[in-house]
What we know:
The protein contains six helices and nine strands. The protein is an alpha+beta fold. Helix 1 packs across helix 2 (88-97) and helix 2 (88-97) crosses helix 3 (114-120). The chain starts with 8 loop residues before the first helix and ends in a 23-residue tail after the last strand.
Amino acid sequence: MRQQKAFTLVELLVVISIIALLISLLLPSLAKARKDSLSTVCLSNLRELGQATIEYSDANSGTMIPYGWDFPFYGTTGADAAQYNLGWTRLLAPYLSGQRVPYLPGTQEDSEPRSVLAIMTCPSTTNLPNIPGSWGPGSATAAWRQWNADGSDPQGGWIGSYGFNGWAYSGNHGQGLFGYICQNLSSYQANQGVRNYFWTKSTINSSVPLIGDCVWEDGFPLWNDPVPTGLTGDAMSNMPSSTFQAGVGTGMMGMFCINRHSMAVNFVFADGHGEHVPLGDLWKLRWTPNWQAKNVVVNGN
């Protein structure tokens, strides 16, 4: 009778070693492919947001999204009525959901539909456990939670991980955009009038970054903003002060300059096209009409 040949222990160990070696060689490639696929989904989200912005503008006589659109919150009356702010996320939501955005039960506070949440958040970020209380900034790997009616109800704060280029906002509705954001701007940017920082519907063009990866729902970068000391974006010092004075925090570019996609972030531009932007190139984008481009080196830190 013919004896069946079996693998020896040495042969089995050799096979196992070869498999382990192949896995070790493949894992970095698989991890990179996964990151690339998440970045692709992120770019797709941003293109949808860009298209929604264009549709909003077309439906509103060519004007851009306002900084804020306030109205009295449900059940409040008089001069001291609580104000509920409709920022760009809520104003674009009807163009993303294909249906009327519902109110939270018993209120006139918009509820964020799941379909909108999926577009408002980059798939490279987590979007729930990291956010303390009813609002808070995000980071390179975590989404932010936007304000709500009274700042106390976590169910009302919308979640997202993209930020609007504040210099592309249109005239305000109920909020003093130029006074609130820029009350000290002209004093430390010599010979640069405050309104020269803002795009108008006649000047905004395909070179203007509109919405991109960010730790908050908007930001107002300046060309002399320094490279942040860290690229995680999770420090509260990245958040703006209410007066935007020189030397406060790390500069608003720090809100966009985050290591979310392998030392790069994604952006959609005013004409609806998307781009993968290396972090150093953020200082070359035309954030404002009077932007002064710089060559900046951003190292992974």
